[in-house]
Amino acid sequence: MAGHSPSRVRVILLSPLERLLLIRYRNTDRSGVDNPCWTTTGGGIEPGETIIEAALREITEETGLVDVRFGPVVWYGEDSRRSGDWGITFKEHFIVAHSTSESLSNVQWTRHEHNQILEMRWWSIQEIENSSDVIYPIDLHRFMKPIFDGDYPIKLFEIPSI
Hints:
alpha/beta
């Protein structure tokens, strides 16, 4: 598994109340130690799936939400820090999506999600900025400010690698 670099989609899921959904993961390393962190909804892109198809599948599976409107893919990042000692670099495309509701459900969670997800909640930009919790990507609040204003980058913004 060392050096494996899966393609993933992360969803910048915004609510009607202008809040971002973050999910707190157990983030267990190989030795079984948990390193909890928050990040956006998302996961692996299956063979043959587009970014939008993967994003919709992940949103539905992780949140139960089905009524979403997609915006553009706005960021790309490579993250090896969140994978701990697994030797994985996540290659992630971040897509904007707007939900019509903040009602969440775990009915469609996989066994892995039941094991790894600790909680889900909607965050304001101020809450993200003021939090002392580990949130990925690092400096998310900085990247989010223009997104909340609907000011999407003209070309794909590359999140600094960590």
